[in-house]
Amino acid sequence: MSDPDDRMTHRNNQARSHEEREIGERNVEELSAIVVNTAYHLHVDLGPGLLESVYESVMAKLLREQGLKVERQKSVVFEYHDMIFDEGLRIDLLVNDRLVVELKSVEAFAPVHAKQVLTYLRLLHLPIGLLINFGSASFKEGCKRIVNNHQDFASSRLRVNQVENRARSREEHEA
To answer: Which one of 20, 38, 93, 143 is at 20 to 30 Å from 56 when CA atoms are compared?
Structure first.
Protein backbone atom coordinates (compact mmCIF):
# COMPACT_ATOMS: atom_id res chain seq x y z
CA MET A 1 0.00 0.00 0.00
CA SER A 2 2.67 2.49 -1.03
CA ASP A 3 0.38 4.41 -3.39
CA PRO A 4 -0.93 7.58 -1.64
CA ASP A 5 -4.40 7.05 -3.18
CA ASP A 6 -4.56 3.52 -1.73
CA ARG A 7 -3.60 4.81 1.72
CA MET A 8 -6.26 7.54 1.53
CA THR A 9 -8.91 5.02 0.44
CA HIS A 10 -7.89 2.69 3.28
CA ARG A 11 -8.10 5.55 5.83
CA ASN A 12 -11.50 6.61 4.47
CA ASN A 13 -12.78 3.03 4.68
CA GLN A 14 -11.53 2.73 8.27
CA ALA A 15 -13.19 6.03 9.23
CA ARG A 16 -16.45 4.99 7.56
CA SER A 17 -16.31 1.60 9.30
CA HIS A 18 -15.78 3.29 12.68
CA GLU A 19 -18.65 5.72 12.08
CA GLU A 20 -20.98 2.89 11.03
CA ARG A 21 -20.25 0.99 14.23
CA GLU A 22 -20.87 4.09 16.32
CA ILE A 23 -24.36 4.51 14.90
CA GLY A 24 -25.18 0.83 15.21
CA GLU A 25 -24.59 -0.23 11.60
CA ARG A 26 -22.68 -3.41 12.33
CA ASN A 27 -21.92 -5.86 9.56
CA VAL A 28 -23.98 -9.01 9.34
CA GLU A 29 -21.20 -11.14 10.87
CA GLU A 30 -21.05 -8.92 13.96
CA LEU A 31 -24.84 -8.98 14.24
CA SER A 32 -24.84 -12.74 13.95
CA ALA A 33 -22.25 -13.09 16.72
CA ILE A 34 -24.25 -10.80 19.02
CA VAL A 35 -27.49 -12.71 18.39
CA VAL A 36 -25.85 -16.11 18.93
CA ASN A 37 -24.22 -14.96 22.16
CA THR A 38 -27.50 -13.50 23.43
CA ALA A 39 -29.44 -16.65 22.48
CA TYR A 40 -26.85 -18.86 24.15
CA HIS A 41 -27.17 -17.00 27.45
CA LEU A 42 -30.96 -17.05 27.18
CA HIS A 43 -30.89 -20.81 26.57
CA VAL A 44 -28.62 -21.33 29.59
CA ASP A 45 -30.68 -19.05 31.83
CA LEU A 46 -34.21 -20.16 30.91
CA GLY A 47 -33.58 -23.61 29.45
CA PRO A 48 -35.89 -25.45 27.06
CA GLY A 49 -39.63 -25.84 27.44
CA LEU A 50 -41.15 -22.37 27.10
CA LEU A 51 -43.29 -21.20 24.22
CA GLU A 52 -41.53 -19.76 21.18
CA SER A 53 -43.28 -16.43 21.77
CA VAL A 54 -41.62 -16.12 25.19
CA TYR A 55 -38.13 -16.61 23.73
CA GLU A 56 -38.95 -14.21 20.92
CA SER A 57 -40.10 -11.49 23.30
CA VAL A 58 -37.08 -11.85 25.57
CA MET A 59 -34.62 -12.03 22.65
CA ALA A 60 -36.05 -8.87 21.13
CA LYS A 61 -35.75 -7.01 24.44
CA LEU A 62 -32.18 -8.21 25.08
CA LEU A 63 -31.04 -7.29 21.57
CA ARG A 64 -32.64 -3.83 21.79
CA GLU A 65 -30.83 -3.30 25.09
CA GLN A 66 -27.60 -3.85 23.13
CA GLY A 67 -28.53 -1.03 20.76
CA LEU A 68 -29.85 -3.13 17.90
CA LYS A 69 -32.96 -2.44 15.87
CA VAL A 70 -35.27 -5.45 16.19
CA GLU A 71 -38.56 -6.02 14.38
CA ARG A 72 -40.79 -8.85 15.59
CA GLN A 73 -43.09 -10.81 13.30
CA LYS A 74 -41.89 -8.85 10.28
CA SER A 75 -44.09 -9.52 7.28
CA VAL A 76 -42.26 -10.58 4.12
CA VAL A 77 -43.79 -8.94 1.06
CA PHE A 78 -42.96 -10.38 -2.35
CA GLU A 79 -44.24 -10.49 -5.91
CA TYR A 80 -44.68 -13.58 -8.05
CA HIS A 81 -46.34 -13.67 -11.50
CA ASP A 82 -47.79 -10.19 -11.08
CA MET A 83 -49.34 -11.13 -7.73
CA ILE A 84 -48.25 -9.38 -4.56
CA PHE A 85 -48.12 -11.41 -1.37
CA ASP A 86 -48.05 -9.37 1.80
CA GLU A 87 -49.37 -11.93 4.27
CA GLY A 88 -48.51 -15.43 5.26
CA LEU A 89 -44.75 -15.10 5.67
CA ARG A 90 -43.50 -13.63 8.91
CA ILE A 91 -39.96 -13.45 10.19
CA ASP A 92 -39.71 -13.95 13.95
CA LEU A 93 -36.94 -11.33 14.29
CA LEU A 94 -35.31 -9.03 11.75
CA VAL A 95 -32.20 -7.45 13.25
CA ASN A 96 -30.91 -4.12 11.89
CA ASP A 97 -32.75 -4.82 8.60
CA ARG A 98 -29.93 -7.26 7.76
CA LEU A 99 -30.22 -10.48 9.74
CA VAL A 100 -33.14 -12.93 9.75
CA VAL A 101 -33.59 -14.82 13.03
CA GLU A 102 -36.11 -17.65 13.07
CA LEU A 103 -36.85 -19.08 16.49
CA LYS A 104 -38.25 -22.49 17.36
CA SER A 105 -39.14 -24.29 20.56
CA VAL A 106 -39.37 -27.89 19.38
CA GLU A 107 -37.57 -31.13 20.29
CA ALA A 108 -35.65 -31.21 17.01
CA PHE A 109 -35.43 -29.28 13.77
CA ALA A 110 -37.40 -30.54 10.80
CA PRO A 111 -35.81 -30.15 7.33
CA VAL A 112 -38.46 -27.57 6.46
CA HIS A 113 -37.17 -25.17 9.15
CA ALA A 114 -33.87 -24.44 7.35
CA LYS A 115 -35.73 -24.20 4.02
CA GLN A 116 -38.05 -21.64 5.56
CA VAL A 117 -35.13 -19.41 6.59
CA LEU A 118 -33.45 -19.80 3.20
CA THR A 119 -36.69 -18.77 1.48
CA TYR A 120 -36.87 -15.63 3.63
CA LEU A 121 -33.25 -14.83 2.79
CA ARG A 122 -33.84 -15.26 -0.94
CA LEU A 123 -37.01 -13.17 -0.96
CA LEU A 124 -35.33 -10.37 1.01
CA HIS A 125 -31.97 -10.68 -0.79
CA LEU A 126 -30.14 -11.10 2.52
CA PRO A 127 -26.95 -13.14 3.01
CA ILE A 128 -27.34 -14.77 6.42
CA GLY A 129 -30.04 -16.04 8.72
CA LEU A 130 -30.03 -17.83 12.03
CA LEU A 131 -32.28 -20.71 12.99
CA ILE A 132 -32.35 -21.10 16.76
CA ASN A 133 -34.20 -23.85 18.60
CA PHE A 134 -34.68 -23.23 22.30
CA GLY A 135 -36.30 -26.66 22.68
CA SER A 136 -33.12 -28.61 22.04
CA ALA A 137 -31.18 -30.17 24.90
CA SER A 138 -28.02 -28.23 24.06
CA PHE A 139 -27.61 -24.86 22.42
CA LYS A 140 -25.04 -26.21 19.95
CA GLU A 141 -27.50 -28.64 18.39
CA GLY A 142 -30.20 -25.96 18.31
CA CYS A 143 -28.33 -23.18 16.51
CA LYS A 144 -27.88 -23.19 12.74
CA ARG A 145 -26.52 -20.56 10.40
CA ILE A 146 -28.23 -20.45 7.00
CA VAL A 147 -26.34 -18.82 4.13
CA ASN A 148 -27.69 -17.34 0.90
CA ASN A 149 -24.90 -16.38 -1.54
CA HIS A 150 -22.80 -14.92 1.27
CA GLN A 151 -19.12 -14.42 0.42
CA ASP A 152 -17.57 -12.55 3.37
CA PHE A 153 -16.60 -15.52 5.53
CA ALA A 154 -13.28 -13.96 6.55
CA SER A 155 -14.85 -11.97 9.37
CA SER A 156 -17.11 -14.77 10.56
CA ARG A 157 -16.63 -16.25 14.01
CA LEU A 158 -19.38 -18.73 13.15
CA ARG A 159 -17.83 -20.71 10.31
CA VAL A 160 -20.15 -23.70 10.52
CA ASN A 161 -19.88 -25.98 7.47
CA GLN A 162 -17.93 -23.39 5.48
CA VAL A 163 -15.57 -25.96 3.91
CA GLU A 164 -18.45 -28.35 3.22
CA ASN A 165 -20.44 -25.57 1.51
CA ARG A 166 -17.48 -24.64 -0.74
CA ALA A 167 -17.01 -28.28 -1.77
CA ARG A 168 -20.73 -28.64 -2.53
CA SER A 169 -20.67 -25.39 -4.51
CA ARG A 170 -17.72 -26.64 -6.59
CA GLU A 171 -19.49 -29.94 -7.25
CA GLU A 172 -22.64 -28.12 -8.39
CA HIS A 173 -20.59 -25.83 -10.62
CA GLU A 174 -18.77 -28.76 -12.25
CA ALA A 175 -22.00 -30.71 -12.84
So the answer is: 20
